[in-house]
Amino acid sequence: MSKNIFRISPGFEDIMPDEYKELVESGPYGKDLGVSDMGTFKELLEEHPLCAGCGLALSLRLILASLPNPEDTVIVGSTGCSALAFPQVAVHNIHSLFGNQNAVASGLKRALKLRFPDKVKDVVVIAGDGATADIGLDMVMQSWFRSESITTIMLDNEAYANTGGQESGMTQQGAVMNMAPKGKNFPKISLPEIAREAGCSYVASISPAQPKRLEKMVRRAILTAREVGPSYVQIFSPCPTNYKFKPQETVSRIKQHQKEGHYQTKEYINTAAQEYLASIEEGKKNE
Amino acid sequence: MLESKYQVLTGPEGYLPPAAASKGVTLPDEGLALVEGTIVPEKDAIEKIAEKILQAKNPFFFPGPLLLWDWKEGVAQKAALVKKLAEVAGIKIIPMPDYRPKYPMINPDIEINPNHPNLTIWHNKIDLCLFIGVHCHYANVALKIIRGGTDCYTIALCGEAGHEDAMISLRDVGLAQLEALIEAVTRLKGVANS
Ligand SMILES: Cc1ncc(C[n+]2csc(CCOP(=O)(O)OP(=O)(O)O)c2C)c(N)n1
Ligand code: SF4
């Protein structure tokens, strides 16, 4: 994408709303910024409408700050809470029908390859656990089987939050929610393992309580999808509204779950991706 | 060519005004324009736009992203002419920098939300608006909403093939058309003042 798209036409500077002027003056585009620069550049999210303390909002901000190439990235979302924040994101994004996100992303990536053969265009799916592990699982797995060059990121709040709190395949066994009053009968699915078996070259699970590792994993996943094969990142993003905890407790709750072993930070990289990532990460060190 | 009797007039036409295209209004060929659903020569439409602007109590430009952002060659010149036309004709400007549905946080004094253009029109009591630099699909949606819920007169200065749902629609608007509009407004103003 031409960065001129972030230059205001002469004469219109005074009538542009402040948020756009700020975006032009201190946006992230073309600057190779990351999670540790957060606060020094214009945030990608503008007055998002998610609940206070929402784990998805926190994860989303970190993901956006980790994109290696935001101006040439298209995010494909799905119906759910995170979809409410996407319209506020200053990165190209598409809202797809609930569960269809990986099919849409596959087509988009192929079209971008044909349309811009000499450019790097990253396609990143960001969707909830219901969209990824339940209703969209068919499309998600088929995109992995076909080895589509896309990154799938699941914002795992262990619930269908946007429809009032039903259990999903990712809900922990025994969890009680508004619309699962008797507690869930089955254990949480291990989607990272499924992703690995289904052909992903890079798989990780992480939480926003570890922002630098999250950044590294999101970058690795996107770079792997560019050159090697599909990638998957699962991010634990609890929902204070449906799980009924205080908004300020989100991060401590994540840490507690990790300590108790309910949610583990993991990374799987296949040999081809290892070689590729080593070559670029080595190159960066030598710069 | 199918000749439509349907007149694209100011609303309010109710919650779901018919798309003018579904009533048989067709887009004009090159060199032609639409005035209230009828195909006329471009220069007649330019004359009519100038008249309408000068008659309006509170005319506004709604420039979209294709004009507000200096994204390709030629945009800056077009932007300069739009500013000039606004000054000559006394047209105020509310920008539409992108199409994010910012409801309910939109401030209608500062920017226009294409999904709720009627809010901006009601709030500012706008009786004539000119769309320019708005991507076609968003212009279509916004123009229809305006016709559905307000009595604002809409004019589309389109860089492509025009819009059936605007009361007046020019196509292929470039520097020449904007200069002709400035000329027409200046001339008609002179006549009115003499
Ligand atoms: C095809 C379709 N089926 C069902 C729905 C209803 N629906 C909307 S959001 C949602 C749940 C989303 O859950 P998840 O993907 O986990 O995202 P979250 O809201 O938790 O972020 C459902 C079932 C829909 N909008 N479209
Ligand atoms: S319901 Fe939960 S997941 Fe949805 S916005 Fe609120 S806190 Fe976030």
TrEMBL record, chain A:
Keyword annotations of the record: Oxidoreductase
GO MF annotations, alphabetized: oxidoreductase activity; thiamine pyrophosphate binding
Domain Thiamine pyrophosphate enzyme TPP-binding: 87-235
One Pfam family, short name: TPP_enzyme_C
Family matches, as Gene3D superfamilies: 3.40.50.970
Name of this protein: Thiamine pyrophosphate protein domain protein TPP-binding
Organism: Dethiobacter alkaliphilus AHT 1
Automatic annotation (TrEMBL), chain B:
GO biological process, one term: methanogenesis, from acetate
Protein source organism: Dethiobacter alkaliphilus AHT 1
SUPFAM superfamilies reported for this sequence: DHS-like NAD/FAD-binding domain
Protein name: CO dehydrogenase beta subunit/acetyl-CoA synthase epsilon subunit
Record-linked InterPro entries: CdhB, DHS-like_NAD/FAD-binding_dom
Alphabetized Pfam families for the sequence: CO_dh
